[in-house]
Structure formats: C-alpha cells, structure tokens
Write a structure and sequence with these properties.
This protein is an alpha/beta fold. It has helices spanning about 35-45, 60-65, 70-80, 85-90, 110-115, 115-120, 140-150, 165, 210-220, 230-240, 255-270, 275-285; strands at about 5-10, 30, 35, 50-55, 95-100, 125-130, 130-135, 155-160, 170-180, 180-190, 200-210, 240-245, 250-255. Helices cover about 35% and strands about 25% of the residues. The chain is globular and about 60 Å long. The termini are far apart.
C-alpha cells in the first residue's frame, strides 16, 4: 500500500534550544535561510506524501504562516521582475495539503502521534520528527516507505549510536536481514547501560501501521511521565513484529545547539548559489583556526 500521509509532531517546548525557542519554535529555525520545517515538508512531498498533519502548540503560529500564501510578497516579486524567487516562494504553498492540530499539553511524542488517529484512519503513515533533519541523496521518508511496501509492516529509521550516547535515545533488539533491513523484536527508551539491546537507535523517521493507536490508548506513561512512542513501538515489535532500516544520509538534531550549527554548515556547503564561496571561506577559516 502506498503511503500518502505523514504526521510531524512539532509541539514540544524545545528547552534544549533556549533562549531562542522562547520566541522561535525550534522546528522553524533557519537552516541556510529556510526554516527546518520546510525541509521536512519538502522531504515528505518528494517521498510521495500528499497530506501532512502538523501537531503544533500555542506560540508556534509562524509554522502555519509560512505555509500560507502571502499575496504582498508575491505581488512585489512579480512587479520587480523576480520571477524565479516568485516561483520558489509560491511553490511552498503547493508542497502538500497541510493540516494542523493543537496539542494543549506537551505529554510526549506518543501523545502527539496519538492525536493523528482521525487524520490517519486505517492507513499506514509516516512520522517525521519535527526537529530531525536528514540530508540524504534519496529522501529518508521515501527510503522507509519503500521498505514498508516490501515487507508490509511498520518500519523504524535507525542509525548506529555510540554506547556513551545511546542512553539518550532508544535501543533495539534486532535480527539482521541484510541490505540495511532488520527484524525488530523489542526496544527500550533511554536505556541504562545494562539495558542496552544493540547500538541501533531510532532517529527521526518511522512508518507505522494504524494499529499503533490502539497500543497508544492502552499503555501507561513512560520515561519522564510522558506517553512514549518508543514504548508503543516496543509493544508492536513484541506482539506482531516490525522492521528497522538503517537509512542513508546524515541526521541532524535541530533541537540540539551543536547539531543545529552542523546542519547549517552542511546545507550552506550544498547551496547551489553560494555553496562554493562558502566552502572557500570555510577552508580559509579552518586553516587559520587556532
Ligand atoms: P523532543 O523530545 O526532542 O522535543 O521531541 P522537546 O520536548 O521539545 O525537547 P526538549 O528536550 O524540551 O529540548 C521530538 C519532536 O516531538 C515534538 C517536538 O516538538 C519535536 O519536534 N513533540 C515532543 C511534540 O509534538 N509533543 C510533545 O509532547 C513532545
């Protein structure tokens, strides 16, 4: 079955990005003059997604504003003969049908995804974590959708994470099937060292079967008193099995200051207009760096 719906949870407080997240949602932070959320919606569109639900919160109204037509800009750009920029700005409105739901209380990623039940209905869907950017040849969501189409079960996007860091993520119990695909039989959120199941952790993208909603309805809150999506996926893995795919691409955590800076460097280097000039500057900068 083709996947055409995606959910982007973006209602978190973003405390790791304070002070900027006090006034600018981390999901809207600029990465080379484009808000992070635009990269995510572009990735969704390039992956065949036609309908996107963004889980948002009070204070994040600029997300909706960015994906709404802005006649003043469009008129001005046309009048001043900037047709290319006009097309670029206009095309933002046509990337996908975008819907919004407000999460009134930040109760965790699981709670945010649970809100998508009526939007998703009985179809498999993608979850694109609102603060995770993946720079890749093939869109990361498309990579997972293709694995879903082949195996017909939920697929988590995974990467290898060092022992020191995996405690901040989750850890998966897996069987290697080959070509980057794993069968998953269990997983644990924020494992203690003795609980680590493997060095594979879910980073930023999953494709889920709608059965996840019944599981989210019946599991208790987990780590941090929040409803954890990982806990629901762990139940799914144990009860009916799921898959993981080690996707190609570099993943950046926009909710982390250092990773956010790194994302900007890679995207600026890749920029078609001034990437080469930026590289020249970077080389000179690194040469003179103490
Ligand atoms: P994070 O756990 O990284 O976001 O959630 P956070 O809670 O904002 O982070 P810190 O620790 O305070 O800095 C991953 C994604 O899920 C969304 C976030 O907005 C982020 O894009 N999220 C998180 C929700 O939509 N609702 C929630 O209740 C929690």
């Amino acid at each position: 079955m083709k996947i055409t719906k995606a959910v982007i949870p973006a209602a978190g407080l973003g405390t790791r990005m304070l002070p900027i997240s006090k006034s600018v949602p981390k999901e809207m932070l600029p990465i080379d003059a484009k808000p992070a959320m635009q990269y995510l919606i572009e990735e969704a569109a390039e992956s065949g997604i036609t309908d996107v639900l963004i889980i948002t919160a009070v204070g994040k109204e600029c997300i909706e504003k960015h994906f709404t037509a802005c006649p003043q800009y469009e008129k001005k750009l046309l009048e001043s003969g900037k047709e290319e920029l006009y097309e670029e700005i206009r095309s933002i409105n046509d990337l996908a049908n975008i819907y919004y739901l407000h999460q009134h209380e930040t109760g965790g990623l699981g709670q945010a995804v649970r809100m998508a039940k009526n939007f998703v209905k009985d179809e498999p869907f993608a979850v694109i974590y609102g603060d995770d950017l993946v720079v890749s040849e093939k869109p990361a969501t498309l990579q997972l959708c293709e694995v879903y189409e082949k195996y017909g079960k939920s697929v988590a996007g995974v990467k290898r994470v060092s022992k020191d860091l995996i405690g901040k993520y989750c850890s998966l119990k897996v069987d290697d099937i080959g070509n980057g695909v794993y069968g998953v039989s269990d997983m644990i959120e924020k494992p203690k060292p003795e609980e680590i199941l493997s060095d594979l952790a879910i980073l930023g993208r999953v494709v889920l079967e709608p059965a996840i909603f019944d599981i989210l309805d019946r599991i208790p809150r987990g780590v941090g008193g929040e409803l954890q999506l990982t806990d629901a996926m762990a139940v799914m893995a144990r009860e009916s099995g799921m898959f993981a795919y080690e996707f190609e691409g570099t993943r950046y955590d926009i909710g982390n200051k250092l990773s956010y800076l790194m994302a900007n460097v890679e995207c600026a280097v890749n920029n078609q207009e001034y990437g080469d000039e930026f590289k020249k500057y970077l080389r000179e900068f690194v040469k003179n760096m103490k």
